[in-house]
Amino acid sequence: MTPEALRELFLLSPVGLVEVDESGRVDVANLAARRLLAPFTSTGALENLFDSLSAYVPDLPARVRGFDGPRGLVVDNLEVLAPSQHHGVLLSLVKVANGRVVAVATDASALASARALVSNLEQRHTAIDGAVRDYAIFTLDADGLVNSWSAAAERVHQWDSASIMGQPMARLLPPDHGGPSSLPDTLALAVRNGWCEEEGYRQRRDGTTFWATTVVTALRDGGGGTTGYSVVSHDGSARRTLDERLRDGASSVTDYLTGVSTHRAFFELAQSEVARACRYGQPLTMLLVAPDRFRERVSAYGEPVANEWLRATAWLCRQESRTTDMVGRIAGEAFGVLLPSTERAGGLVLAERIRERMARHVFAGDVAGMRGTVSVGVAEVSDAVTTVDGLFDAAQQAVERARQAGMNLVVGYDD
């Protein structure tokens, strides 16, 4: 190849080529090198390679000076990323003679973008992991051993990462509900179909169990082989308890007059929800809705007032509540509204809507034109309120404060 051809190859090469002396001063650089390295310079002009990269690779001059051989590879594919930019280069330095070094720069922008994407995905995963409370998320290797364990999984299963890593998933399965014997079938089904879903009991580290819906997804490599499994398991204990009660018969869980839950059904679910709120650190709020001067009105107007007032109060509570909330008749004339994943502030808003609508409600029938009001107490699970009885007592205290302040009020319990 002629010298002219070599020079043209040097200048037009898609790979950045720079010849420098031992101090980094640039003798010659091709177009690709100037384009790739310009983002690392303050002026855009490539005059001294070591100075341009001093903020990113400060020990570059020392590496060159410390290389004792007459020629050879000084730096091999060093990744250099520009800050706040999806731009980077892979840099190699080759000593070609005493006092002469050739730098080879290749575009690593795709790598920089990939790293930024991975970082973004990791941040999203961390956000999701912090937000979910009753979903365990973890992965297994190809042999079914735990190789990643999220904070959400730790909350649900109560195993810390150091104790469960490297252990078989079978440790999370109760021995008397299939246990280790069922795991190979589950993983095989996930491999065959790509994923599988199952319901069954799972076991916490302390030996207690909970009902869960679990999705196992097979993770593939480029050739279609299985490299491991992703597992998402949802603690559905409270929902299962409610479904079982409903299957036992609506009469046992539904108040005949108002159509809302009975005292027993309400407090059974409340017990499960309080336990789950305390275990996972979820907010949980209860409203206690109590008609004002109820017994006085009943004594004055008779049973029709009682029935109509109770039905109206129950209807308004259900109208204003979400489908995930539970309304129950928990005393003779008082109603409870259980609000999962809701802080006291949200409960106060809902309570005010119920109070305001009840104050505007006009009765019909035998008590046409009569109006009634309610006092509402709002209480939240907290460090001081950790049981169903404690939550109910706190709501009752708030109701009493509302009545003492003149009734037709909403009061939040403040421990």
Descriptive account of the structure:
This protein has helices spanning 3-12, 31-37, 49-52, 60-65, 109-131, 151-157, 161-164, 183-193, 237-247, 263-280, 294-301, 303-320, 344-360, 388-404; strands at 16-21, 26-29, 72-81, 88-97, 100-107, 135-141, 146-149, 195-203, 209-220, 226-235, 284-291, 326-329, 335-340, 374-380, 410-412. By secondary structure, it is an alpha+beta fold. A hairpin with a 2-residue loop joins strand 4 and strand 5 (100-107). It is elongated and about 115 Å long. The mean pLDDT is 83.
Structural class: alpha+beta
Overall 3D geometry? elongated
Radius of gyration (CA) equals 35 Å
* Strand fraction: 25-35%
Q: How are strands sequenced across the largest beta sheet?
A: 2-1-5-4-3
Number of helices: 14
Largest sheet: 5 strands, antiparallel
Q: How much helical structure, as a percent, in the residues? A: 25-40%
Write down the overall mean pLDDT: 83
Task: Find the count of extended strands (DSSP E, 2+ residues).
Answer: 15
What is the straight-line distance between the termini? 88 Å
Q: H/E order of the elements? A: HEEHHHEEEHEEHHHEEEHHEHHEEHEHE
Unreliable residue stretches:
none
Q: What are the SSEs and their pairings?
A:
Blueprint: H1 3-12, E1 16-21, E2 26-29, H2 31-37, H3 49-52, H4 60-65, E3 72-81, E4 88-97, E5 100-107, H5 109-131, E6 135-141, E7 146-149, H6 151-157, H7 161-164, H8 183-193, E8 195-203, E9 209-220, E10 226-235, H9 237-247, H10 263-280, E11 284-291, H11 294-301, H12 303-320, E12 326-329, E13 335-340, H13 344-360, E14 374-380, H14 388-404, E15 410-412
Parallel strand pairs: 14-15
Antiparallel strand pairs: 1-2, 1-5, 3-4, 4-5, 6-7, 6-10, 8-9, 9-10, 11-13, 11-14, 12-13
